[in-house]
From TrEMBL:
<comment type="function">
    <text>Catalyzes the specific phosphorylation of the 3-hydroxyl group of shikimic acid using ATP as a cosubstrate.</text>
</comment>
<dbReference type="InterPro" id="IPR027417">
    <property type="entry name" value="P-loop_NTPase"/>
</dbReference>
<keyword id="KW-0808">Transferase</keyword>
<comment type="similarity">
    <text>Belongs to the shikimate kinase family.</text>
</comment>
<dbReference type="GO" id="GO:0008652">
    <property type="term" value="P:amino acid biosynthetic process"/>
</dbReference>
<feature type="binding site">
    <location>
        <position position="63"/>
    </location>
    <ligand>
        <name>substrate</name>
    </ligand>
</feature>
<dbReference type="InterPro" id="IPR000623">
    <property type="entry name" value="Shikimate_kinase/TSH1"/>
</dbReference>
<feature type="binding site">
    <location>
        <position position="21"/>
    </location>
    <ligand>
        <name>Mg(2+)</name>
    </ligand>
</feature>
<keyword id="KW-0418">Kinase</keyword>
<keyword id="KW-0547">Nucleotide-binding</keyword>
<feature type="binding site">
    <location>
        <begin position="17"/>
        <end position="22"/>
    </location>
    <ligand>
        <name>ATP</name>
    </ligand>
</feature>
<dbReference type="GO" id="GO:0005829">
    <property type="term" value="C:cytosol"/>
</dbReference>
<keyword id="KW-0067">ATP-binding</keyword>
<comment type="subunit">
    <text>Monomer.</text>
</comment>
<dbReference type="GO" id="GO:0005524">
    <property type="term" value="F:ATP binding"/>
</dbReference>
<dbReference type="GO" id="GO:0009423">
    <property type="term" value="P:chorismate biosynthetic process"/>
</dbReference>
<comment type="pathway">
    <text>Metabolic intermediate biosynthesis; chorismate biosynthesis; chorismate from D-erythrose 4-phosphate and phosphoenolpyruvate: step 5/7.</text>
</comment>
Length: 172
């Protein structure tokens, strides 16, 4: 497992609330490598929050920024990389991930996603309308694409440590 992670970046994909950042941090700890969060890197590069990028420049501009940041992160030192839920939906980014890294889809059920995203306001896609309906629509649209990930790990209401162990087992 360790050798896999040291030679190739492990990229976590999945919907908002699937636990990509939480599990990613733990996974990096277990593998003894760095953890990077693509959203954090976008915020650093832009000097604006994700919500502000969406509000001031729109989603397309956020996606452009995301694509550039992903390209930089994927060509750097192998690490564990958590992505924003939309990153793997971009054909160019997805091709780069599949070429350079091991992709891991954290597949979660709707109730888990709804409860993990509830009360958080930093996600522009969930800030208008009914979050459950929005997450359901995103599941329908994105799950067939996330399914292209090299590894799929199911995650329900279980702890981040438990899911981390499942990822390690799947990578072994
Ligand atoms: C998005 C997910 C967010 C963030 C942005 C858009 C998406 O990241 O990149 O709000 O399109 O699913 P998380 O999945 O880390 O919440």
């Amino acid at each position: 497992t360790q050798r896999i992670a040291m030679t190739r970046t492990v990229v976590l994909v999945g919907l908002m609330g699937a636990g990509k950042s939480c599990v990613g941090r733990r996974l990096a700890g277990r593998l003894g490598c760095a953890f990077l969060d693509a959203d954090d890197e976008i915020v650093k590069a832009a000097g604006l929050s994700v919500a502000d990028i969406f509000r001031l420049y729109g989603e397309a501009a956020f996606r452009d920024c995301e694509r550039k940041v992903m390209e930089r992160l994927l060509t750097g030192t192998p690490c564990v990389l958590a992505t924003g839920g939309g990153a793997f939906m971009d054909a160019e980014t997805r091709a780069l991930i599949q070429d350079q890294a091991i992709s891991v889809w954290l597949r979660a059920d709707l109730d888990t996603l709804v409860s993990r995203t509830a009360g958080r306001t930093h996600r522009p896609l969930l800030n208008s309308g009914d979050p459950r309906a929005k997450l359901q629509a995103l599941m329908t649209e994105r799950y067939p694409v996330y399914a292209e990930a090299t590894v799929t790990v199911d995650t329900g209401p279980d702890s981040a440590d438990h899911t981390t162990q499942k990822v390690l087992d799947a990578l072994a």
